[in-house]
Amino acid sequence: VSPATRQHGTSRPHRTLSARSYLCSLRPTMSLFRAKEWWSASVGEADEVITAAVGNFDNEPEPALLKLATGSLSGKLRVYRPRQRGYSLEDLLLEAALELPVLQLAAGRLTADSTKLTLAVLHPRALSVYRLVGSGGGSDDGPSYHALECIFSHALERPSYNLLVGTASGSGDFACVQSMDGLLTLLEKERAQPPCQLSKFLLPGPLTYCANTDALLTFNSQLEVDCYRRAHFAPSPASTHPRLQVDWSVPVGEHVTALLVARLSRGMAASQVDIVVVAERLLLYIKENGSIRNQKRLDYSACCAAAHSVDGSSQQRLVVGGRTGAVMVYSDMELLWAARLPGPPATLGVHRFGQQPGLLLSLLYDGTTTLSYLGTTPPPPGAVGAAESKQLNYEAMDAEHRRLLGIIREASTTRPEPAGGISLRAEVPLRCDERGSGEGAEELPALTVRLMAAHSGVAPADDVSMVASCAPPLFLAADHIVLPPLIAGDPPAAVPLVFRARPDELPVDLSATVVVNYSAGGELRCASCELRLPLRLVADPVEPLKTSGFRLTIETNRPPLPLGGLFEDMVVDAASAAAEGAALSIVYGCGLDATVLASKKERGRYRVCSSRFEGLWLLTDELVRRLRAHGEGEAGASDGGFAVWYEDSLPLREYFEAIDDHLASRRALVDAKAELEQRARQLRAVEKRLLVQLKRLPIPPLHLGSEEALFTHPRCGSRTGCLHRSQASRRCSRAVTTSSSS
Description:
7 helices; disordered C terminus
């Protein structure tokens, strides 16, 4: 905030990564006028610049040049002095690491003498005031060296949100810090007053100061603008943090992005000001007593705003930035000019740098600081047509219009689906294939599904291609198959699809989708088929286990069914089916177990247990699906349709613990990769040093006979092969031990 406009205050923009990526991806609106870049500075994506301030921070004598200060979340403070068009290395006066994140910068005379301009830096838990000191040089360009001198630093009681520097009549500048929980802390003449609590507070919002009424204005979570008199900031012996009383409130009804004080309305007295409220879709002018002076609906989403003075006039103008990168200039409520920036701005301002007045300062969401002027730039070719010198042919235009309307009408007309086509039918076996004796994927359990494709159309089906997909850890040996042309009346084409399951992951879904694309009669058509793979592909039945880890209880309105009938594909023979009528246990390929128990009471109740929380899902889903299939097949039930429900409270604690474990595993994997990369770099460095040392040392000749040299190399090769095989066997044993323990 510049010294001329620091009394208006500013609000710290919300800077989250997702919001930043979304705003940077928005495409600016098309405009004939672009903001012409005069000067810009960028530090890259590694350093996130979020705030900027303008002022004569080194108190250079007249004619002084304004300096531009930027702060980042990494704690880097940079001070620039733009003097001419284009960025140069001499423009950077200072770059300092403050070791704390910089949330906001502001310029003001906050020292006890109140004569020199200082730079206020807001940290999460402290407010520091610095002075820029120049030394050396003596040329026309000013000092050649600048240093940052800390005048004082005040520790804050609560985490801070934003900072306001205002000028009170008769008492000089003061600073006000708003915390995340609504505490306002005033600092004046290097002294801090006891904090006061805002009323009607839930989340922090923009903060500004009105010098005419000596009041602070903010925005609350009830979508209202509140006014607090600064005279009410008095310590109370009865309360540590006295609650402030609202002087007046104005409902806005939208989220406010900027709140400032300026002279924008025409016909106002010299002592009157406007309280400008810039909401997402609303521009509102409020009088000093809280009544509404004027308002205007915006046809774009505003993200920031700033007011600037006009030479030779007491009336100011308003500059509003949109989330599409557009910049609107208003005089009162009248739109004077519209231009566009390279991206949506987070902060705006109008200042004089060098000998160029009226430069627009914009801090973009990607961290680029730009000074530009509202000039015109020739649009790209094709954006706007040149002035046409030939006469327009209205008859040809009308004929083209009628032709396009006919095409649109023909395309939008609903046409019946052509008869015939490819029909798909899947034959899913209940048992898996015999396991192969090879290595790799041949040792994994496999299931061959026969997909029958028959064509019943008049025209033959050409360019037939089949694509199948399934959820991991399931995979197919070949997921894309090209079929020969299909002719109506021919026997169906049988396509084998081999599904396999990796044992190192827990399955989450057993469904698969097959899509066939083909062309018939010059039209592109498709057919799809949904199938569900058997549970036996990813799990094996075992003897009933006594599991006391995690459990879920499913209830139905039917008597309990024998589990041997529900899970007949998991039962080997009739004897085991009778033995497992009330309990069934399975073990997944990754080693997790799950058990389902059937109640012996009249009302059907089933309990699913597992030693791990994530092992409950697949068996529970399979149980509910089979119960519903059996219940829907029954007829003549006296109590209505079949129903299944879950009455207990949701296991959210276990669910969140599983998420935390997954996150910890991901972090451990990242740390292990980083450590491996570091060890690899160290190994390469050691190898380079060894090579250098070996080149320096003389190597004696090898005195080996011909026969000894002939047999030494094979012996070394065989020894190396033995070492490789032993290491591979040790790795396999460790992997088996790890999977068994998990």
